[in-house]
Design a protein that fits this description.
CATH class: Alpha Beta
Largest sheet: 6 strands, mixed
Structural class: alpha/beta
Order of helices and strands: EHEHHEEEHEEEE
Shape: globular
Radius of gyration: 15 Å
Low-confidence stretches: none
Strand content: 35-45%
CATH topology: Rossmann fold
Strand order of the largest sheet: 4-3-2-5-6-7
CATH architecture: 3-Layer(aba) Sandwich
Helix content: 10-25%
Mean pLDDT: 95
Number of helices: 4
Distance between the termini: 6 Å
Number of domains: 1
Bound molecules: inosinic acid, magnesium ion
């Protein structure tokens, strides 16, 4: 394994994203994290938001699946739905990494039919060269090369998620 983005750089960038998001969401946002990859990132992001935003913020998780090991099967299925109603809400969908875009596209479609007031996306990592579906990433932590990465929520067969940095599996 080789370090791609070190801990300090990841944390600094999450701080910058928190400042941007706090400035854009003046009403009560609903953060929707895509399990399991987004959990660590979403909590770190919330941690860096200004105190006055926290009382107005709700968060929830969805879970979708399309991967087996490093193999993307292309078929996205819903594993866990939201608990909170999204109608009329300012929803920010958060993912750890956007690769082909199929997972995010699936979640956006699903939320869209429930008529949120607004719908935007945030991803810690974006492998935009691999995109099969054009999905917008409104807040992007890092554009990365086409390599399989782990850490900060990203896994290889459920391993290495808890790392504080992003590493490349060789
Ligand atoms: P997509 O549907 O192809 O955009 O894939 C998105 C999902 O695939 C992410 O939420 C991750 O769970 C997983 N994924 C894609 N690329 C990587 C990677 O490099 N490392 C770990 N997981 C990945
Ligand atoms: Mg995964």
């Amino acid at each position: 394994m080789k370090v791609l983005i070190d801990r300090e750089t990841v944390e600094r960038r999450i701080g910058e994203l928190a400042v941007e998001i706090a400035a854009d969401y003046l009403e009560a946002p609903l953060f929707v994290g895509i399990l399991t990859g987004a959990a660590q990132f979403m909590m770190a992001l919330i941690d860096r938001l200004p105190e006055e935003m926290l009382a107005k913020l709700d968060y929830d998780f969805v879970d979708v699946s399309s991967y087996q090991g490093t193999e993307n099967t292309g078929q996205v299925v819903l594993v866990k739905d939201l608990t909170i109603a999204v109608e009329g809400r300012d929803v920010l969908v958060i993912d750890g990494i956007v690769d082909t875009g199929r997972s995010l596209d699936f979640v956006l479609d699903m939320i869209c039919t429930r008529r949120p007031h607004s719908l935007k996306t945030c991803a810690l990592l974006d492998k935009s060269a691999r995109r099969a579906l054009q999905v917008p990433v409104d807040y992007c932590g890092f554009e990365i090369e086409d390599a399989f990465v782990v850490g900060y929520g990203m896994d290889y067969d459920q391993r290495y998620r808890a790392l504080h940095h992003i590493a490349i599996i060789e």
